[in-house]
Amino acid sequence: MEETIIQCEQITHYYGSRLIYEDLNFEVKRGKILGLLGKNGTGKTTIINILNGYLLPRAGTCRLFGEEMRSLSPATKARVGLLLEGHVQHAYFNVEQIERFYSRFFPRWKREAYHALLEKLQVSRTQKISTMSRGQRSQVALGLLFAQDPELLILDDFSMGLDPGYRRLFVEYLKEYAAAGRKTIFLTSHIIQDMELLVDDCIILDYGRILLHEPTAYILDNFRRYHLPSPLPIAGCNEFWSTERVGDHWETYSFLPPEEVARKYGLTDIRHERLSLEDAFIGLTGKY
Amino acid sequence: MTRAICYKEWIKTRRVFLLSALLFAGYIIYAFIHTGHLFRVEGAVATWAGMILKQTFLLPTMLRWLPLVVGILVSLAQFVPEMTEKRLKLTLHLPMPGHRILIVMLLHGIALLLALYLLSALLLARGLACYYPREILAALAWQALPWFIAGIPGYLFTAWACIEPTWKQRVPNALVAVVSLSACYLDAQPGSYLAFLPCLALVVLIAFLAPFYSIARFKEGIQ
Questions:
Q1: ipTM, interface predicted TM-score of the complex
Q2: Which residues does chain B have within 8 Å of residue A91's beta carbon, measured at their own beta carbons?
Q3: CATH number for the A4-218 domain, one of 3.30.1330.10, 3.40.50.300, 3.30.160.20, 3.20.20.60?
Q4: Model's pTM, two decimal places?
């Protein structure tokens, strides 16, 4: 049985009177890459803040490597690499200074991993981070995480503000890094096509709850969009998502296989298609 | 690790430290010119008599505010970058106890200020020793001591206000800071602060603890 790296139990949180989640439960096993997907305002960054001990939830608890999030020991913090939303870093340092600073904290520091990544950028060692583009900053942040060599990476919206090239670069490095060292990664992103290339498991958040927690392959293999000819006899059925009229036909989404949909509802003229993760996300959460 | 934190703080504060050193250097030069001018225009007897009989402060009065301004500047240089984009999360994520990180950060700032204050005071005392006897210098030192002390809680209270996560709480924090610091700016005879020194020490202690309260609020995610 794989070790549980992240465990969240019965997390309930409100901002003022607005419910963010109620009784949120999930865990992440060692070696897994888990993507947290959700529309704006569903609490993706909130859960990352709770995990790292920067937000006290109304109820419930999270543990990293078995330690409560509010009292992470220095040894556990050294095992966790954290990327803040927007690739925030100590921007007053230059490229060399920031490496020198972080290297003092981590016994397994891999200087060469940082410099190997930075060599791909057109930056000098004395360039200040505040003068870099968002893409360059993302590579500095990633290089620092790789040099730290943590067992768990927590990445908050890693693709934010990056052009397609930098996004692809980020994803490829992450994949290689995770595969090589059986690392655990917990990440959020708005760009779901990047997640499709990367994540083993998905948690899809809706307002106030987890809508779905399944392996990515299961979603891609089983979740389908159906085009139906007439008003549906499926209203109120919880096996279908986001049912709506589009032009002269109806669209709906379901994990049911086509044969079962046809048999169960006596439909003959149905078309169906497999979906990308992004389409599946839209199907599950709706467009609005 | 402590050295690494100090390194980070030095990178943030080195320009302000240099600026502060220049401000003090400028003040010292101006103080010597001012003193020479006093002796030439009013004469040594009138200047000494003013000091001894009327307790006139013989140095340019901007010394009242200079240590406080420098304390606030150093604090802003240290803590505004930490709160910009909530970089403090990165700092607190370092594998070191959070309270120890803050202690090192605060002690770094205090050490910079003490270095500036002590060096400036020494240079002033050395230069003024050419004009005044030891007794007058001692009286001057007693007059200026509360202003120098004010620089330390000024620095700490500014850190407290910077780290505080909400503007709503920053305003009362600033008011508490102003009231506490005003105790250092009461007009009084040289040496009369001697009895008040334990109270000033208490103000410094409270000011040192206040940023820990803001850190606790920051970690609770109060918005």
A1: 0.84
A2: 81, 87
A3: 3.40.50.300
A4: 0.88
